[in-house]
Amino acid sequence: MNKNIEIALPSMKAQRKMILEKDTETSISTLKSNLLGVEFPKADGVNYAAIDARIYLTVDEGWVAPEHELVNAWFNQVKDNFSDYRTDAKLGNLLGLHGGGADRRIRAYRNGDETIPYGIWRRFLELTGRVVPDIKPVLGVFDME
């Protein structure tokens, strides 16, 4: 007695669409929960009135790199408040730097030996709630057939 069991599954297109919808809802929830993050005071030793507002802009808007003293102060603020990121290597990993050189690169940004790249700075600003994460509109949902 050999009976075949059939299980009705949605098409691959429908499955992909469901995953896209679920992941989008998760992203929306994350954005909303970001508004409930723990608030921290301003970093010690930073003259906030002297900060060039262009450090918060996107490249297209005219971003300029922050002064290394600000990078150092704000990096130290995160390191002081989050034990998971107390080392330059761990902070570097958080910011997308991987491998043995992450700590050296973070130190170079903090000391002014290298200018912090836009992508790393932008990620830092997003992770610290200083700017809203970049949300990009899609041109369309491709490869659905």
Structure description:
With 145 residues, the protein is mainly alpha-helical. It has a domain of 63 residues. 44% of the residues lie in helices and 0% in strands. Helix 2 packs across helix 4 and helix 3 crosses helix 4. The longest helix has 23 residues. The two termini are 38 Å apart.
Mean pLDDT: 94
DSSP helical segment count: 5
Say what oligomer this is: single chain
Query: Helix-strand pattern, N to C?
Result: HHHHH
Range of helix content: 40-55%
Q: How many strand segments?
A: 0
Weakly predicted, low-confidence segments: none
The main sheet comes to: none
Q: Terminal Cα separation, in Å?
A: 38 Å
Give the structure's gist in a few sentences.
With 145 residues, the protein is mostly helical. The chain is built from five helices and no strands.
Topology, element by element:
Layout (H helix, E strand, L loop, with lengths): L11 H23 L33 H14 L6 H7 L7 H10 L6 H10 L18
Helix pairs in contact: 2-4, 3-4
For the structure shown, list the relevant keywords.
single chain; 145 residues; mainly alpha; 5 helices; elongated
